[in-house]
Design goal:
4 copies of one chain form a homotetramer. In chain A, strand 5, helix 6 and strand 6 form a beta-alpha-beta unit. By secondary structure, chain A is of the alpha/beta class. Chain A has a single domain, classed as TIM Barrel, CATH 3.20.20.370. A 7-stranded parallel barrel of chain A has the order 1-2-3-4-5-6-9, surrounded by 7 helices. A two-stranded antiparallel sheet of chain A has the order 7-8. Helices cover 39% and strands 19% of the residues of chain A. Chain A starts with a strand and ends in a 5-residue tail after the last strand.
Chain lengths: 252, 252, 252, 252
């Protein structure tokens, strides 16, 4: 029994710090590293990839819209061609630092508004996949089960990795409850940890209406920038360990 | 008898066009491709590398300061560490598109104010070299004969490529006459063409005071954004051909 | 009989030139000046406002999304609050240069994708109006007849200015034919000029299906960046003059 | 006996937070507000000016180089003309938000590397002054005693405000000890507070070598982004109060 733990990292920019990357990299197995378009700068990328390499954490490209001011959290109606170019650029830039640290980029995960867009937006979903495939067809795509981007990845012969969110509420249909709804984000650390373990051991989760739904995730996403992120990550690790689940990067 | 012809390319950005890249790529043997920091965007980079690949033109990373508003022409007092990270990022991003076009980045040439800075600024010169070496020690550095960046490259075991400017006036000491001086930029196409041929066949050039100085350049730099750039490039090619000099990328 | 002629200006950025602003400013009565978010930089803004002032051309704030790479032509899902702040920032920055040239900003016109968004997007439309009103309730809003932004402006007590496009095809319903449709952009200079005169003298235009529709526009929009922009502007002026229509800024 | 307390504020950007602006604005009398070039964005500027207005804190334009990635802390060799345009743009943008909050921008203070540059760089110093004067000749310039920018301001008829740094060591010549030197930044809160009071009551300070030098400052600069910034600000206020010095903005 094994599961991957992924977390958004390298989201500082210039003088501005976000999250405790060093601590988080000692807890997760996969790092979604910002590539400089929505967050991250060359120095932050170097530091993050170097620490990830030292900790044995798998490096993924967290690609986003070119929107530093909005942290990539605002949908941008980019043409598929323009988006594909932007995604390839980001993966390639990150790969340079991964190689400098003796590693390689192993997967691609869309960030923020792009993550949400490629659940349904077929044109942008295919653009992300096309860019990834052009760069390296052995790269995996990490995304939401049932999303357009994972469907497109499968069509193009790329391996996909599905993820679940340990601290987000689910609808009875298995989709995420919108952040604008009450109760969408869970903050009780122990509750989240038990929930995470159940996701792995029983492949199920309690939806927001109390119903039990099945869930199949290769990776669990831990948020790194919440006030209690480290505490939650440690609790999830402990609960998984207690349940007999090993934390192991999907790429090994 | 052979010489390389290099030119700055891929300097458009978004809706803004600069130079006639397609035409220029049919005339030169090496393309200094802007990497998105002082000019160029992911789509422009893809188009430029694809055309360069189709034309058999060698691809170099034209790395610059992160200053789009100033086109990389204003000195920035970046720390060597920060500059090295920025240079590695740019080379890596370009490499992604070069590989997508079936090629590799072959050399690194600093752009604009960075080009001028690394003639004397040892810290920034070493940063450019360190980043290049970290990325790929088989990359060459293209720069001004006698510059700090070429000295640093030799110290670090990188191959260097020297260049001369066909349309710039030289001092009797063999340095470039500053652009702020009258007569610093030559515009007579036939004169420039003859001068270029002489640089290759006799390894000499007439300085601004009429004295003859020796010059050894592996590559001749043609400017791509002047009004008569294409005309000048064609005249230089013809003059070199008449003089029995082959135009050949230095990297082959 | 009088009509305003407005044109997008000040769309250069750094080293990149777009359009012939000086020539165009001798032909139009209102200048939609880019404010640095989708195009324009402080130096371009200063030059454009100074020339507009010297030519007696009314200055408007051409406000756009913060998307230089996309020239403001890609919808961005900005929150109304964030958009209002961005619009106020742009108007205020432009006002600084207008005052330095002895003038004032007289109106606000959304640019590109924002222009299209505020035809229907009530939240963003209200944000543009709210920012304008906060800055100066005597500012006018220039937009498409029937658009949400003009409705919001009227609700808030701002004066509105309607515009028609001399070189764009209209549907029988009076909306613009999408640029992706064939025949959406008219290029025959003489035809466009006659059409412009008819818009003013008869308040009607021939739609793409040949039907005649009525049109009421306080201002005619001339595009400044097409290859034949100057020629078209001169022809439109001549046709208006022949028809006895004076070209006069709406703000006087 | 009165003195102004100024502090850098509004230095957050997008998702990234820096400093505790609300708390600091309850302690100082003048706010140096970042204008979006080195830090700050339209929403941050609105919030900062609104809070400053509510607290009765005077608003100043903290103008910087266009270098978000470097937080304006790297010298940029901008031409005086280009710098003047950038400074005017920043003051004007801030003025829009100050007016929306019922206030006006009262002074201009260069930030970071620009602050250091205009101590000696006459061309850039004059550019800052020229832009300020063009915008509004009643604006004051806040800077280092003896700096080129204050000299230029006096020549142009602008009022100047001199400042001292409560937590920085001084040389026997009255200049600041470089941050790269040991002991350049003072961190003992009580010591700094006593020092601040002495600057105001006795117009003197103990230099790094133990000698006593005279100092005349209209304003004391408190740093807002250090870990103990709030504590230091409170201690300085208390010490000034104990010494009978009123904290009062210089602009009243």
């Amino acid at each position: 029994l094994a599961v991957d733990l992924n977390c958004d990292l390298g989201e500082s920019y210039g003088t501005w710090r976000l999250g405790d990357d060093a601590a988080m990299l000692s807890l997760v197995s996969s790092a979604n590293v910002a590539c400089g378009f929505h967050a991250g700068d060359p120095t932050v990328i170097r530091q993050t990839t170097a620490t990830a390499a030292a900790e044995g954490v798998t490096i993924g490209a967290h690609v986003g819209y070119p929107d530093l001011a909005g942290f990539g959290r605002r949908f941008m109606d980019m043409s598929p061609e323009s988006l594909a170019d932007a995604v390839l650029y980001q993966i390639a830039a990150l790969e340079g630092f991964a190689r400098a640290a003796g590693r390689r980029v192993a997967y691609v995960k869309p960030h923020g508004a792009l993550y949400n867009a490629v659940v349904h937006h077929v044109g942008q979903a295919r653009a992300v996949v096309a860019a990834t495939r052009t760069f390296d067809p052995s790269l995996k795509i990490l995304g939401l089960p049932g999303s357009a981007v994972l469907a497109a990845a499968r069509e193009e012969g790329l391996e996909v990795v599905t993820e679940a969110f340990v601290d987000r509420a689910y609808t009875p249909e298995g989709t995420l409850v919108s952040r604008s709804e009450p109760g969408s984000v869970l903050t009780d650390v122990e509750h989240v940890a038990r929930r995470a373990a159940r996701m792995v051991t029983h492949r199920e989760v309690e939806a927001i209406d109390g119903s039990i739904i099945s869930i199949h995730a290769d990776s669990l996403c831990i948020h790194g920038d919440s006030p209690r992120a480290l505490e939650m990550a440690r609790a999830v690790r402990a609960a998984l360990s207690d349940a007999g689940a090993e934390i192991r990067a999907f790429t090994r």
